[in-house]
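Backbone-to-sequence.
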């Protein structure tokens, strides 16, 4: 993809005990929220190992899921 993703999704092991360890970052709104699931249709997805950025590395992320809306 040549454009930045619409969402970056990662697992935060520190939030596992809350029952909502999945972090969804809406890049356009620059907002994050925690959830136990994430559903989206009509999108392109790429998963990268070792592609975490600073705020993701802080919580131990080594793999990120990038999502582009169609």
């Amino acid at each position: 993809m040549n454009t930045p993703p619409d969402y970056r999704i990662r697992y935060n092991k520190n939030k596992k005990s809350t029952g909502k360890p999945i972090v969804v970052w809406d890049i356009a709104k620059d907002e994050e929220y925690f959830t136990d699931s994430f559903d989206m249709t009509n999108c392109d997805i790429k998963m990268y190992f070792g592609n975490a950025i600073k705020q993701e590395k802080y919580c131990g992320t080594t793999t990120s899921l990038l999502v582009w809306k169609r």
